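HOLO CASE FILE
Compound: heme C
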Amino acid sequence: MLVRHLLAFAAMLSSNYLTPDYYRSHSPAQAYLDLRADPTLSSLSDPNVWNLVAFIWRSNTTPDGIAKGQQLFAQNCAACHGESGRGDGVFAASVETQTGKFPANFTDPASMLGASPALLQGKILRGGMGTGMPYWGPIFENETIWSIIGYLYTFQFDEGQ
Ligand code: HEC
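Model generated. C-alpha coordinates follow.
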Protein backbone atom coordinates (compact mmCIF):
# COMPACT_ATOMS: atom_id res chain seq x y z
CA MET A 1 0.00 0.00 0.00
CA LEU A 2 2.70 2.42 1.02
CA VAL A 3 4.63 1.83 -2.17
CA ARG A 4 1.73 2.86 -4.37
CA HIS A 5 1.25 6.05 -2.37
CA LEU A 6 4.93 6.77 -2.51
CA LEU A 7 5.05 6.68 -6.26
CA ALA A 8 2.20 9.13 -6.39
CA PHE A 9 3.26 11.55 -3.66
CA ALA A 10 6.97 11.35 -2.99
CA ALA A 11 7.63 13.60 -5.97
CA MET A 12 5.70 16.36 -4.19
CA LEU A 13 8.16 16.43 -1.29
CA SER A 14 10.64 19.27 -1.15
CA SER A 15 14.17 17.91 -0.93
CA ASN A 16 14.62 19.83 2.35
CA TYR A 17 12.73 17.03 4.07
CA LEU A 18 14.94 14.32 2.64
CA THR A 19 18.27 15.33 4.15
CA PRO A 20 19.87 13.27 6.93
CA ASP A 21 19.88 16.43 9.07
CA TYR A 22 16.13 16.79 8.80
CA TYR A 23 15.53 13.14 9.63
CA ARG A 24 17.88 13.05 12.60
CA SER A 25 16.63 16.23 14.22
CA HIS A 26 12.88 15.66 13.91
CA SER A 27 10.49 13.18 15.48
CA PRO A 28 7.96 11.60 13.12
CA ALA A 29 5.27 13.66 14.90
CA GLN A 30 7.18 16.90 14.20
CA ALA A 31 7.70 15.89 10.58
CA TYR A 32 3.98 15.21 10.28
CA LEU A 33 3.20 18.71 11.57
CA ASP A 34 5.72 20.27 9.17
CA LEU A 35 4.28 18.43 6.17
CA ARG A 36 0.70 19.09 7.25
CA ALA A 37 1.47 22.83 7.39
CA ASP A 38 3.19 22.78 3.96
CA PRO A 39 0.93 24.50 1.39
CA THR A 40 2.26 22.36 -1.47
CA LEU A 41 0.90 19.25 0.28
CA SER A 42 -2.44 20.66 1.40
CA SER A 43 -4.41 18.40 -0.96
CA LEU A 44 -3.13 15.24 0.77
CA SER A 45 -5.21 13.34 3.29
CA ASP A 46 -3.82 12.85 6.80
CA PRO A 47 -2.99 9.15 6.17
CA ASN A 48 -1.07 10.12 3.06
CA VAL A 49 0.90 12.72 5.00
CA TRP A 50 1.83 9.91 7.39
CA ASN A 51 2.87 7.82 4.40
CA LEU A 52 5.21 10.61 3.40
CA VAL A 53 6.64 10.68 6.91
CA ALA A 54 7.26 6.93 6.62
CA PHE A 55 8.87 7.60 3.24
CA ILE A 56 11.26 10.18 4.75
CA TRP A 57 12.22 7.67 7.44
CA ARG A 58 12.69 4.89 4.97
CA SER A 59 14.72 6.98 2.57
CA ASN A 60 17.25 7.50 5.39
CA THR A 61 17.85 3.77 5.67
CA THR A 62 18.95 1.09 3.24
CA PRO A 63 17.86 -2.55 3.13
CA ASP A 64 21.40 -3.50 4.22
CA GLY A 65 21.33 -1.04 7.10
CA ILE A 66 17.97 -2.36 8.29
CA ALA A 67 19.20 -5.95 8.06
CA LYS A 68 22.30 -5.03 10.04
CA GLY A 69 20.22 -3.15 12.60
CA GLN A 70 17.89 -6.11 12.95
CA GLN A 71 20.75 -8.52 13.53
CA LEU A 72 22.41 -6.26 16.12
CA PHE A 73 19.09 -5.70 17.83
CA ALA A 74 18.51 -9.45 18.08
CA GLN A 75 22.01 -9.97 19.52
CA ASN A 76 22.24 -7.01 21.90
CA CYS A 77 18.84 -5.56 22.68
CA ALA A 78 16.15 -8.21 22.34
CA ALA A 79 17.00 -9.86 25.68
CA CYS A 80 15.48 -6.80 27.33
CA HIS A 81 13.43 -5.06 24.62
CA GLY A 82 11.98 -8.27 23.16
CA GLU A 83 12.33 -9.80 19.68
CA SER A 84 9.23 -7.90 18.61
CA GLY A 85 10.36 -4.67 20.29
CA ARG A 86 7.58 -4.73 22.88
CA GLY A 87 9.83 -4.37 25.91
CA ASP A 88 9.09 -7.95 26.89
CA GLY A 89 12.46 -9.71 26.51
CA VAL A 90 13.54 -12.53 28.81
CA PHE A 91 15.35 -10.11 31.16
CA ALA A 92 12.55 -7.53 31.23
CA ALA A 93 11.01 -8.74 34.48
CA SER A 94 14.31 -8.91 36.35
CA VAL A 95 15.35 -5.47 35.05
CA GLU A 96 12.05 -4.15 36.38
CA THR A 97 12.53 -5.87 39.75
CA GLN A 98 16.02 -4.45 40.13
CA THR A 99 15.49 -0.96 38.79
CA GLY A 100 11.76 -0.26 38.79
CA LYS A 101 11.86 0.38 35.01
CA PHE A 102 10.69 -1.79 32.16
CA PRO A 103 12.73 -1.76 28.94
CA ALA A 104 11.21 0.65 26.40
CA ASN A 105 8.47 -0.63 24.09
CA PHE A 106 9.35 0.36 20.52
CA THR A 107 5.93 -0.60 19.21
CA ASP A 108 4.38 2.19 21.31
CA PRO A 109 3.53 5.04 18.93
CA ALA A 110 3.32 7.57 21.77
CA SER A 111 7.02 7.24 22.57
CA MET A 112 8.44 6.34 19.16
CA LEU A 113 6.56 8.88 17.04
CA GLY A 114 7.55 11.54 19.55
CA ALA A 115 11.26 10.68 19.48
CA SER A 116 13.77 12.01 16.94
CA PRO A 117 16.63 9.79 15.78
CA ALA A 118 19.03 12.19 17.55
CA LEU A 119 17.14 11.71 20.81
CA LEU A 120 17.23 7.92 20.50
CA GLN A 121 20.91 8.11 19.61
CA GLY A 122 21.60 10.05 22.82
CA LYS A 123 19.75 7.47 24.88
CA ILE A 124 21.55 4.57 23.23
CA LEU A 125 24.95 6.25 23.70
CA ARG A 126 24.30 7.05 27.34
CA GLY A 127 22.28 4.00 28.32
CA GLY A 128 19.57 3.92 30.93
CA MET A 129 21.44 5.65 33.75
CA GLY A 130 20.61 3.26 36.54
CA THR A 131 17.80 1.46 34.76
CA GLY A 132 19.82 -1.55 33.66
CA MET A 133 20.15 -0.35 30.06
CA PRO A 134 23.84 -0.58 29.18
CA TYR A 135 25.60 2.41 27.58
CA TRP A 136 26.55 1.54 24.07
CA GLY A 137 28.65 4.59 23.18
CA PRO A 138 32.02 2.82 23.62
CA ILE A 139 30.80 -0.38 21.94
CA PHE A 140 29.30 0.60 18.59
CA GLU A 141 30.45 2.83 15.74
CA ASN A 142 28.22 5.80 15.01
CA GLU A 143 27.00 4.34 11.72
CA THR A 144 26.11 1.13 13.51
CA ILE A 145 23.96 3.03 15.98
CA TRP A 146 22.15 4.80 13.11
CA SER A 147 21.45 1.37 11.58
CA ILE A 148 19.95 0.16 14.84
CA ILE A 149 17.88 3.35 15.11
CA GLY A 150 16.62 2.85 11.54
CA TYR A 151 15.56 -0.62 12.56
CA LEU A 152 13.80 0.61 15.74
CA TYR A 153 11.48 2.78 13.63
CA THR A 154 10.41 -0.22 11.57
CA PHE A 155 8.32 -1.20 14.59
CA GLN A 156 6.25 1.87 13.63
CA PHE A 157 6.78 2.03 9.86
CA ASP A 158 7.02 -1.61 8.92
CA GLU A 159 5.67 -1.40 5.39
CA GLY A 160 7.89 -2.65 2.67
CA GLN A 161 10.51 -4.19 4.93
C1 HEC B 1 19.69 -5.00 30.27
C2 HEC B 1 18.49 -4.61 29.57
C3 HEC B 1 18.61 -3.73 28.33
C4 HEC B 1 19.35 -3.98 27.19
C5 HEC B 1 20.27 -5.15 26.91
C6 HEC B 1 19.06 -2.87 26.30
N1 HEC B 1 18.19 -1.99 26.87
FE1 HEC B 1 17.45 -0.30 26.04
N2 HEC B 1 16.43 0.12 27.73
C7 HEC B 1 16.38 -0.69 28.85
C8 HEC B 1 15.55 -0.05 29.86
C9 HEC B 1 15.24 -0.61 31.24
C10 HEC B 1 15.10 1.16 29.28
C11 HEC B 1 14.15 2.18 29.93
C12 HEC B 1 14.97 3.27 30.54
C13 HEC B 1 14.09 4.31 31.14
O1 HEC B 1 12.88 4.12 31.26
O2 HEC B 1 14.64 5.35 31.50
C14 HEC B 1 15.68 1.24 27.95
C15 HEC B 1 15.47 2.30 27.08
C16 HEC B 1 15.95 2.36 25.80
C17 HEC B 1 15.73 3.45 24.88
C18 HEC B 1 14.96 4.74 25.18
C19 HEC B 1 13.59 4.65 24.56
C20 HEC B 1 12.75 5.87 24.81
O3 HEC B 1 11.75 6.02 24.09
O4 HEC B 1 13.07 6.66 25.68
C21 HEC B 1 16.32 3.12 23.70
C22 HEC B 1 16.34 3.94 22.41
C23 HEC B 1 16.94 1.83 23.89
N3 HEC B 1 16.69 1.40 25.18
C24 HEC B 1 17.64 1.16 22.93
C25 HEC B 1 18.36 -0.01 23.16
C26 HEC B 1 19.18 -0.64 22.16
C27 HEC B 1 19.33 -0.13 20.74
C28 HEC B 1 19.75 -1.73 22.74
C29 HEC B 1 20.72 -2.71 22.14
C30 HEC B 1 21.87 -2.15 21.41
C31 HEC B 1 19.26 -1.78 24.13
N4 HEC B 1 18.42 -0.71 24.32
C32 HEC B 1 19.60 -2.75 25.04
C33 HEC B 1 17.01 -1.90 29.01
C34 HEC B 1 17.88 -2.48 28.11
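CASE NOTES: The pocket of heme C is lined by residues 76-77, 79-81, 91, 95, 101, 103-104, 111, 115, 120, 123-124, 128, 131-134, 136, 148 (CB under 6 Å). The chain has a mean pLDDT of 91.
CLOSED: yes
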